[in-house]
Design goal:
Length: about 400
């Protein structure tokens, strides 16, 4: 029965014109992907527009549930979604958590320490040396290296970890069945053999430039900490850093010379308060201390179903502010996320029916308390209320 639910989850994730946010809304009114598949048009219209509903109907008429899923296996591709017991635990609480992942090889272990190493593609000899030394030491110490398999710092650190007998995982900006860049074919094959390659994109998705910034949240999300080795002032590496900070991850930076343009981004991060990377040995010691502190904060009930997961920030806000929120306010607040939603959309997802005017009043109250933000007329998303 568990594998059969995977058939429906794969179908749901493959629907054209229906993204993860829409899937999240569907899962708020249905208990599982199979229930979405069997849901009536009347129920689905609470979330889907007419074009989306037509797309879903057409997909149901041509999609062969078991055959399509078995075809994935034949292509040596694994598939996990939020309702799978194998879904990486670290991803449950990141903003915009992916609904599903495709992979080759194996998935990162939930309880093993892991570090994301990111940096310049056109790195210097100094950056290459630091990446090799850090990757090698992490591999020897049993710390998984997470990166994007790109040329430069990413690939160098991953190769060094594997050569040292360690484990590494590559997060791709294309389908997991595509090696990108092609020049890293040997690394791609080694990752599959000794670790894994992962992607949020459907098999066959080409490496389009727009795919790479979103995948960076998975790189940082799978790691306990992020190390930046060389980054220009406008480097794409800084996107990963922003996402890591949003996820509450520790960021360490390798200092560089002030005259070196490859270190401009790194030195600016240090000025802003990032951790200073001095040596692989010191860093691993700090990582172990970080893991010990995190043990006391683990939530054993995370990820028990496929429904959208409330972020840690939302949990903390509700826990610390629950004396201010009535049951109705909490019910509306729990439906908010980082993507703006209209009053009508929120109203349709409430377990207890409320009129649009009633929901509007509640949203205004949430905005006043800092729990919600009105980003445009009639559209709201979760706020950034200070929970201290």
């Amino acid at each position: 029965m568990k594998e059969k639910e995977n058939y429906y989850a794969y179908w749901l994730y493959s629907l054209p014109g229906i993204g993860v946010k829409t899937i999240d809304r569907l899962l708020r009114i249905c208990q599982s992907p199979s229930e979405i598949y069997a849901a009536s048009d009347e129920l689905l219209k609470r979330v889907l527009g007419e074009k989306q509903l037509i797309s879903l109907r057409e997909a149901k008429s041509v999609w062969r549930l078991q055959e399509e899923y078995e075809e994935l296996k034949k292509r040596k591709l694994g598939f996990v979604w939020r309702g799978s017991g194998e879904y990486p635990e670290r991803l449950y609480h990141i903003p915009d958590a992916p609904f599903a992942l495709f992979y080759r090889g194996r998935l990162p272990e939930n309880h093993s320490p892991s570090v994301a190493i990111v940096g310049a593609r056109d790195c210097s000899r100094y950056g290459s040396y630091v990446a090799q030394e850090l990757g090698r030491y992490l591999g020897e110490q049993g710390v998984s290296v997470i990166s994007g398999m790109a040329r430069g710092i990413d690939g160098i650190s991953q190769e060094a970890a594997l050569k040292a007998g360690g484990i590494s995982y590559g997060v791709l900006g294309c389908g997991a069945d595509i090696c990108y860049p092609p020049s890293n074919r040997r690394l791609y094959e080694e990752l599959i053999e000794k670790g894994g390659v992962l992607s949020v994109y459907l098999p066959g998705t080409p490496p389009l430039s727009r795919n790479f910034p979103p995948r960076n949240r998975i790189v940082s999300g799978l790691a306990d900490a992020v190390v930046v080795i060389e980054a220009r002032s406008r480097s794409g590496t800084l996107i990963t850093v922003d996402m890591a900070l949003e996820q509450g991850k520790e960021v360490y930076v390798v200092p560089g010379r002030v005259t070196d343009r490859l270190s401009d981004g790194c030195n600016r991060l240090l000025k802003q308060g990032a951790g200073v990377f001095l040596s692989p040995q010191d860093f691993v010691e700090e990582l172990r201390e970080l893991k010990e502190r995190q043990k006391g904060n683990k939530n054993p009930d995370v990820g028990k179903c496929g429904k959208p997961v409330v972020t840690k920030e939302q949990e903390n806000q509700i826990r610390k502010g629950k004396h201010l929120l009535s049951e109705e306010l909490q019910s509306v607040y729990m439906l908010l996320n980082f993507e703006p939603q209209s009053i009508e959309e929120i109203s349709s997802l409430l377990p207890k029916p409320l009129s649009a005017s009633e929901v509007s009043v509640i949203l205004m109250r949430l905005c006043m308390e800092g729990y919600a933000v009105q980003v445009s007329p009639g559209c709201f998303c979760t706020g950034n209320r200070d929970s201290s």
